[in-house]
Amino acid sequence: MQSNQAPSGTPAPYGRACLNCSRAKSKCIILEPGTGCERCQRLKKECNPSPTVRKRNGRSSASKAAQLEAKLDSIVSLLKTTGGTSGLPADWESTAKAHAAVRAQPVQNNYAAAPIPSPLSTPSPPSSTCSVMEVCLSLHIPPELAEKSLNQFRSANLKFFPCLYIPPHLTAQQLLPEKPFLWLCIVAVCLPGSMNRDGLFDKITELLYKEVLVNVTLSMDILLGLMTFLSWMCYSKRPFLNFYSNFLIGVVSDMGINKAPLTEHSTMQAFKHAMGWRQVQPMVRTIDERRAALGAFLMTSSVALCMFRIDSLRWNSHMEESLSILTDAKESPEDELLVALVKIQLVMERNYHLRRDGGTQSLSEFYIKSFQSQLESVKSQIPPSLKENKTVRMYLATAELTIHEVAMQTPSVPHSPELNRLESLRACLQATKTWLDIWLSFHPTEYVGVPFTIFYQFSRALVSLFKLSTLEDPAWDKGMVRNTANVLEFIDQCIYKMKNCADTANINAPNDIDWNTWEKGVRMCQSIKQGWEPRLMEAWYPNMPGNGLEGALPQTGPEIVDPFPIHGLDDDFMLEFFGSL
Questions:
Q1: Is residue 302 part of a domain?
Q2: Start and end of every Zn(2)-C6 fungal-type domain (predicted)?
């Protein structure tokens, strides 16, 4: 029996089969050189090599790498001409070239030529710096006016709210290319009344929405400009401070400057890294970042305490560390002031959370004494140079009022006066008088730099004094309140001061009435006096003819009165300004 042995030979390399085997799609076994393949010998056919070989991709690895690098270079050049890569976060760096080199290596299949998408291949929106600079240059602000605005902002505004530091040697011309959006907001805040503030307000809000919400451009320039806009400009036009406070919290949180630098990647960061981005995290927070985070807390906490609608930027150990670092660094003379204000605000913040979550019933004598003890501890930490600082004293008076004002909402016990409650009421009276005395001691030029945080304190002090003047409690002497701090006299003095300030601010054009906060203040105080005076006369002189019989009737508890019988005041900002207290 003859055995069937497989012919010995070597399979032809891929793409090198003879013509007959190639057409038959059969394996081509080459026997000895010059004898042809096994299949052709067996079939007694002429074994001819295939006239062509398999076509390969004509582009070499070097050419593909060169094309990818050329594409990357063209994109980078395009981005440089527009001023930066605003379509990408500032803290992410592309590693596309490294991936391009890997993709350029030879591979053994047809899919090697397919392009792999790169993060830089998506078109970037116009850069933030370019669009902001265009707006700044389109205003045609004279250099001397820009310099005057910067000096005014540095000396008059920041002493009330030192959320940023502008070195004395830095000029407006130097600030413009470095932080154009901050420059724009400073100029808008300090412009005289003859300028078109409506147009500036619209330009700034449009830039904010575009750069933050659309382009997601987050930088210290945008953050500091946003804080400037909220503190001194936004409240003058439209009452959207709750919205903008949440807006500010979102920017700070997304930048991450309110937290320590991450030591490990989050899930999203790991995903971005896998896509080709390498995150570059700073190892140490800068002083400017720490100062801005503390300023954002101070601002959002002030809105939360006055509106009772939102929460402030959450306090954490990193921000506590920033207090110590700013105290030791002494980079800016105003840093000590910022640290003192934040510490006072923290006491009010804790009190606010307890009242919001537990109501006035939770603020027992124990908690009041605890908050008062915390405030005394903060007072002892204030440097001697700030003991007589007006801003610090106003914050301390507001904190005293915030701690004790719950006594005005607690019903009295008939025929059994509570000494602790009376002490709290007296503390409220002293705090409101102290605050209003400081407010009236300002020179008219100082009022120009007052931010909304101080305006909210003014509203709280004035409303609290009215409540104390009309509080129905047999143990509470309303005549003593009138003799100690007459709310009507304070209103008259405020009207006089605001009229002088309106003249000093040089905002007299009829079309600028919406921006003249002081003219608004005059109308507001006049309307308040008109609405409050009948109620005050009834409380102070209950037996006068014309006051009716209600004043002579015994009261069993404090009457719940609307502290705002204001007529003729039709202004959204002023209604929100007072309506939340």
A1: no
A2: 17-47
Burial of residue 23 (number of CB atoms within 10 Å: 0-12, 13-18, 19+): exposed
Residue 456: Cβ within 10 Å count: 22
Q: Which of 32, 51, 70 is the last residue of a domain?
A: 51
Structure tokens, 37: 């393949």
Check residue 397 and give left, alpha or beta (phi > 0: left; psi -120 to 50: alpha): alpha
573 vs 521: CA distance, rounded Å? 11
* Residue in the structure block whose two tokens are 């094309």: 67
Provide the domain limits for residue 435. Answer: 425-581
Burial letters 269-287, b for 16+ CB under 10 A, else e:
eeebeeebbeeeeeeebeb
Bridge partners, 49 (sequence order): 18
* Bridge partners (DSSP) listed for residue 11: 29
Which has more confidence, 404 or 58?
404
> Closest Cα partner for 48 from 15, 22, 9?
22
Beta bridge partners of 10: 30
Q: What is the pLDDT of residues 60-75, one digit of tens each?
A: 555 666 766 666 666 6
**537-546 tens-digit pLDDT:** 998 888 766 5
Is-contact 494 525, C-beta < 8 A? yes
Q: How many CB atoms lie within 10 A of CB 42?
A: 10
Q: What percentage of the chain's residues is helix, strand, coil (to nearest 5)?
A: 60, 0, 35
- Of the ranges 21-25, 214-218, 322-326, the best mean pLDDT one: 322-326
Domain end marker among 34, 51, 68: 51
30 in a domain, yes or no?
yes
pTM: 0.72
| pLDDT higher than 70, residue 175 | yes
Q: Which residues pair with 278 in a beta bridge?
A: 93
CB under 8 A, 24+ apart: contacts of 247-250: 247/208, 247/212, 248/296, 248/299, 248/300, 248/313, 249/296, 249/300, 249/312, 249/313
Query: Six-digit token pair at 509?
Result: 């054009």
For residue 110, the model assigns a pLDDT of 37
| pLDDT > 90? residue 373 | yes
Listed range (28-42, 413-427, 460-474, 552-566) with the worst mean pLDDT: 552-566
Looking at residue 56, what is its pLDDT? 53
Q: What is the DSSP string of 327-356?
A: HHH--STTHHHHHHHHHHHHHHHHHHHHHH
Tens digits of residue pLDDT in 143-171: 999 999 999 999 999 999 999 999 999 99
User: Quick check: is 538 in a domain?
Assistant: yes
Q: Are 313 and 297 in contact (CB under 8 A)?
A: yes
458-485 average pLDDT score: 92
Whole-number Å distance between alpha carbons of 391 and 163: 14
Please check whether residue 468 lies inside any domain of the structure. Answer: yes
